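Let's inspect one such protein example.
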Amino acid sequence: MAARNLQDQELILRLATDQDHDPDVQRAALRNLLRQLMSTSKLPLGVFAVSDKIAANLLVVARELYLNVPNELKIIGFDDAPIARYTVPELTTIHQDTSAIAERTANYLLEAITDRDHVELDDTPIPIQLIQRGTL
């Protein structure tokens, strides 16, 4: 976004915390956000959702609003949750290695318990992978 000089305030859609737990409430909030964007002719080319659950709900809302995914709106989720394989079209998502994350976290905890003063933090990024499916 910075490379294209895009203002994040205009481009980041946020759900309220209380809208994240109930699927019906979340879909209503997403529907309102998309309708607002459509009414101003500023429909985004794509949405990167912070979870596959939100991305799947966005896919349902897009279908309700007669938006063609991926032709009119591209959607990418995050986490490669099982739901990503059951949506229509299947959800493009970012896969993270949760086993490596858990192992690294457990090692930090064990080091902290045994020797608090000498915990070595490994800041090497754990690789992620784009899983391309039908929404991109």
